[in-house]
Each structure stands twice: as structure tokens, then as C-alpha cells.
Write a structure and sequence with these properties.
Elements lengths: L19 H22 L10 H18 L5 H8 L9 H26 L9
Helix pairs in contact: 1-2, 1-4, 3-4
Length: 126
Amino acid sequence: MGIQPEGCTAVTHDTITISPGSRFRAAMVLAIVADALQIIVFPLFVEGALSPADDILDFGIAAILINLLGWHWEFLPSFLAKLVPGVDLVPFWSMAVANVYRKSKQIAVTEEESRQQHPALKDPQG
């Protein structure tokens, strides 16, 4: 490393990790905002559900949700339904995120029950 002038700081390339709870909260807030925009604001435009802004919002929300939560099959029907005029008035993004959250909680409970039923072997010397 070289010498840095006074007042300068080194740039580090540390990754920022977000807890799963924070990711789900962020995903749910984004899904609710996207659904609210599509239900309340976009129908006010002349194109309604055929608005390019509506489609761009759907592509963006799908990308962000996949980035936050990973790929889940619940996102595919939500994305496809949002492309159908009239059907996009149903809050599919919010329902998809809620279903992914519900399934993740079920998996966590099942794993915890499995750990309780099969405790690790104790050290015979300890």
C-alpha cells in the first residue's frame, strides 16, 4: 500500500450483507408500492394497463425482487399476470412476496423441528 495524503481514506471492497428479515421487508414494501402504483396511478393514464411505464415497472420490480429474495416460482405467474390488461389490478407482487415469506418460514420451522428430533452426538470424552 502506498502512503495516503492526510484526510484521505482507503476504499475497501467489503460486501454489504442484508439480513433475510430486512430483505423480506424491503421486498414487501417494494411490492406494495408497485401494486399501489399499478392500481391507483397508472389507470389514470390513457393507456391504462397497456402503458409502457406499467411494463417497465413490472420488469424492474421482477429484477429487484429476484435480486433481494432469489428466484422463486411465485414471481413468474405474477409477472405474466401483470402483462394482461385488467388482471394487473390485482396485487400479485404483494401476494407473491407474502407467499415466498410464508414458505421460507415453513421451511425454517421444519428444519428447526428436525434439529430438535435429531440432536448432534455428544463428545464421548467430554
